[in-house]
Amino acid sequence: MRRGLALGAGLLVLILLVLSVKGCLNVRKDRALSDYAGNVIQIVDETAQTSEAFFGKLSDPGGLSVTEFVAEVNADRGAMDNYARRVDSLDAPGDISRAQGTLELVYELRSSAMATIADRMSTALGDVGSEKATAKITNQMRVLMASSVLYAALVRPEINSVLAGNGIEGSDVPKSVFVPDGIEWLDQSTVSSALGSVSGATGATIPGVHGLGLIGTSVNGTELTADSTTAVSAEGAPEVEVQVQNQGESTENGVTVSVKVNGGNTLQQDIGSIEPGETQSVTIPLTPAPEGRATLDVDVKPVPGEQVSDNNKASYTVEFQ
């Protein structure tokens, strides 16, 4: 009898110990899920504030000048980059890892779209190239809309389902619709009209002297000349290095440099910004690598307010040996 009692007591202690450990693990898991949901809620709420600020400016820029408007859009871009980094660093419990992967994609799309919008905004508000820049901004509105669809279809229901399945209440993640007013902002004419209400935008003269100059082009270190054929070694991957000088009085942002090989596809890279009088270079890989004799057409896209762009482009004949 004593042995039986001792065995029963030991078994009871073991059961209580197992239940205690299981309870601790459940509490830890619930806390991890609640913390994760709280972090997502905070990021989503801040994203809504950025959306409201961004589309508020588009709907009513008030007295913002072109420079002020571009600066504020760049601030919205920086905020979105910050949200994307925070999403990437979230510690997602195992049950919610699939939703976390989709959430990362949602914010990668939003960050990329806002970056492109910010890069094109200065040109869209100017005269030269404004229509093309506005079209690119409108395309990014569609990307932002797609990110909201992904969030609504996959992220939010899955996170809330996991929370409910674990008995966690009061932590449901909210909706996250970045582009308001349905499909209104997916229409280029709507975007163009909004940008046209910014003070000094759309065809107005931009103060100061603006202008860029293509001052040098080389392939794998060999300088090219426009009036003769230049022999270049075909070994390795060929890269075109283009030197661009800001010959105006203002800092220029988002300068696009492009190269075409034998009139084919356009290869391009952007220079973030160039100060007045400064020269910067950009390197563009030639893919696929040309063979034999090839014509390289290099073009530096004019910036808003640039009146003379004849020195922004050049054509070179290159013999790859």
Describe, in plain words, how this protein is organized in 3D.
This protein has helices spanning 2-59, 66-88, 97-124, 130-165, 188-196; strands spanning 212-219, 222-223, 229-232, 239-246, 252-261, 266-274, 279-285, 292-300, 313-320. The chain is an alpha+beta fold and 321 residues long. The protein folds into two domains: 12-196; 212-320, Immunoglobulin-like (Sandwich), CATH 2.60.40. The strands form two sheets. It has a five-stranded mixed beta sheet with strand order 3-9-8-5-6, covered by helices on one side. It has a four-stranded antiparallel beta sheet with strand order 2-1-4-7, with no helix packed on it. Helix 1 (2-59) runs antiparallel to helix 2, helix 2 (66-88) runs antiparallel to helix 3 (97-124) and helix 3 (97-124) packs antiparallel against helix 4. The longest helix is centred in the N-terminal third of the chain and has 58 residues, at 2-59. It is elongated and about 110 Å long. The model is unreliable at 18-25 and 202-206 (pLDDT under 50).
